Amino acid sequence: MTHITEDERQGLADGTLNAEDAARAAAHLVVCEACAADVSQLRTLMHRLHAAASASATLDEDLWPAIRDRIESSKVIALDASSGTRDSRSPVARRRPVWLGAMAVVGAAAAVIVAAVVLRSSRTPAVIPAVSVSPPAASTAMPVPSGPAGIPAVTRVSDSARAYQQQLQQLLDEIEMQRAMLGPSTTAVGDSDLQVIDHAIAELKTALERDPNNTVLRQLLAESYQQKLDLLRRLRNAS
Amino acid sequence: MMTRMAANEDTATCDAVHRAQAGELGAFESVYRTHVSAVLALCRRMTGDEREARDLVQDIFVRAWEKLAQFRGESSLATWLHRLGVNVILERLRATRRDALRFTDEVVDDVAISRASSAADRVDARLDLDRALARLPAGARTVLVLHDLHGYSHDEIAQMTGIAPGTSRAQLWRARRALTRMLNE
Amino acid sequence: MQAIALFAMVAGAAGSPIAALGAVSAGAQASEPLIRAHALAAGAPVKIFFPAGTIRIEAWDRDSIEVRGHIAQHERFFMAGDVHGVKLGVDDHPDGSPVAASDVVLYVPRSSQISVKSVSAAITGTSTAGWFYSVSGAIHLSGQSRSVEVESLAGDVTLDVNAPWVRARTGDGHLVVRGAPEDIDAATVRGPLDIESATIVHGRFASVQGDIRFLGAPVANGLLEFSNHGGTVSLLLPRAVSATLDLSSIEGPIENRFTQLRPAAGATPGSGGGTLHLQLGGGGPRLTVRTFKGAIRLQAR
């Protein structure tokens, strides 16, 4: 006797066989106990799977605090607070690079302004406060106290966009005063690069309006702010 | 622009989603509380591991928060969350495989399925379904959970996992056979 | 340019200040200059302003500073200070007119903290540490160094340094990182950025429009971040590499020519972009790439 194929057994069990093939296979089951038993087992399994599909699970632990902490920490982006002034101390002692998205203080002598990007929404001005970590004294490295999930405790709160704007305005004022001393080629290069960065910032802000919770967008925007501050410091140093 | 919700979505859910999309974390918490059971069930079945399932629940809701602006109400929130959850789980399964180069049209590991079913001989004869699912190899379990528990087609599974539809079908059949053996012994 | 020999200064009593000397008048014979200063204190600063031409700074193991070279006619060289620090260079013109090119070689104690500022001069440093700035001149640093900070508006920056800490910026210039830096922060605005090092433990690489290429090999505990707005980020990794990669683009394509995994679709249907997370080999070093609309390319080399 020729038995039905695996394709037909599985199709009979989950009801995906077309009508003609199903009828032929069903007719075989009438005369073949082995195939009938096999298909019956598969059908039993399908019933159990369908019953299980709608069942939900219970959780003995509330995962919300951990989820909330991750969402909150993802809103905070580090900006490099270096003043860019030249001094004779070793850069190792002066400053370490600040890694975007990293909450830990890097290096004992690093001064870090941890800022969040202010989200402007036409519906609700969702202002996420920035946190500012005071730099430790040069000779004694004070560890920053940690809160839940290792996030540094807030020591002072300030508006992040305002912090960026303040740094920016200070540099622009200095550069305006020194602009006459910059050569025309220098100002041309500087202006051109500033336009490129400003255009990038505008594109990112527009994208964030549409997708305000997008962490990657916020990190890219913070990076663009940093690029602009870096460029303005280089322009200031040109004079 | 406020998202237009699906017709069968209740008012409280609509309100919570809109407020969460505007950045209200408190509103998103109510979304979490409403849907965490279903998401956890999905994670448990796809991974077969409790600790990994709980990690994935967190990952899924964090991702849902980040992507909430893209929810346009064309499906129910539960369906949207489910799809997002499946993507997150599959990313994790791909990322933790030792050699990502092999996650393509691989041949179903019959040896792994045989071992899984014979291991059941050493425990109580009747395994419940979840424990039996956990014993399947990851690839076979993924296909079976997506197809038989959540209704994805082989074409959809192929697109999500990078395997061919024919391989998905073969994996499914062998997974069903292994489950049948485990549950009937 | 009529080369005018640089002056030589005879070392005086220890601690006495170095006199500021003017240029030798035109018509003097060019000679091999030699300057010996008083012993410079360990880590003493050397501040240099050198607008145009070439300046080469070499570290040596002596406790003195020596300058040799040729100063362009009518330009004024200055040098002042004492054992605790030296300032030297070529004066600007009060009317802002361009300074003619001069060529100088400077030997400094290895522990000196250098600060160099130039407009168009090409700066070359060997085993020197400090801050190197040029508006448009090229900067090339090599050798062993404690730390290096390099900035330019439009000049090329080439780093062949072995240093625990490096920071490099240029706007339009080509930034190349070779050698063996450990902790590096490098960025351009529009210029290309190429990284060919295999020793980086912490790396942060960014551009706005320039293309970034990583041809190195990540170290076991490495953390490398790449960020680009519109330029591409290309990771050319060894075929047998172990690493965990997180690739995200808002609107740009992600091209994986390393494995057969395809990226997950982007946020907004039809707008491109996507994410790809994958583990190669046993994982270990972590590479994160974010772009707005620049392409991300992953391939084996």
- Number of extended strands of chain C: 27
Rg on CA atoms of chain A, Å: 32 Å
Main interface pair? A-C, 39 and 51 residues
- The arrangement of helices and strands of chain A along the chain is HHHHEHEEEHHH
Strand line-up across the major sheet of chain C: 5-6-2-8-10-12-14-16-18-20-26-22-25-24
Helix content of chain C: under 10%
Q: Strand order across the biggest sheet of chain A?
A: 1-2-3-4
What profile does the largest beta sheet of chain A have?
4 strands, antiparallel
The helix fraction of chain A, in percent, is 40-55%
Number of helices of chain A: 8
Strand content of chain A: 5-15%
Share of β-strand residues of chain C: over 45%
Average residue-wise pLDDT of chain A? 66
Helix count from the secondary structure assignment of chain C = 0
Largest sheet of chain C: 14 strands, mixed
Query: Which secondary-structure class do the elements of chain A indicate?
Result: alpha+beta
Shape verdict of chain A: elongated
Order of helices and strands of chain C: EEEEEEEEEEEEEEEEEEEEEEEEEEE
Distance between the termini of chain C: 48 Å
- Outline the low-pLDDT stretches of chain C: 1-15, 20-32
Structural class of chain C: mainly beta
Can you walk through the features of this model?
The complex is a heterotrimer of chains A (239), B (185) and C (301). Chain A has helices at residues 6-14, 19-31, 33-53, 64-74, 91-94, 160-178, 184-210, 215-237, and strands spanning 76-80, 112-116, 130-133, 156-158. Chain A is of the alpha+beta class and 239 residues long. Chain A starts with 5 loop residues before the first helix and ends with a helix. Chain B is an all-alpha fold. Chain B has nine helices and no strands. Chain B has helices at residues 11-21, 25-47, 50-67, 77-96, 110-119, 129-135, 138-149, 154-161, 165-184. Chain C has 301 residues and is mainly beta. Chain C has a domain at 1-127. Chain C has no helices and 27 strands. Chain C has strands at 4-5, 45-49, 53-60, 66-71, 77-82, 85-90, 102-109, 113-118, 122-126, 129-134, 139-144, 147-152, 157-162, 165-170, 175-177, 183-188, 193-195, 202-207, 212-214, 223-228, 233-237, 243-249, 254-257, 264-265, 274-280, 286-291, 296-300. Chain C has a 14-stranded mixed sheet with strand order 5-6-2-8-10-12-14-16-18-20-26-22-25-24, with no helix packed on it. In chain C, strands 1-4-7-3-9-11-13-15-17-19-21-27-23 form a 13-stranded mixed sheet, with no helix packed on it. Classes of the chains: A alpha+beta (239), B mainly alpha (185), C mainly beta (301). Chains in contact: A-B, A-C, B-C. At the A-C interface, α7 and α8 of A face β8, β10, β12, β14 and β16 of C.
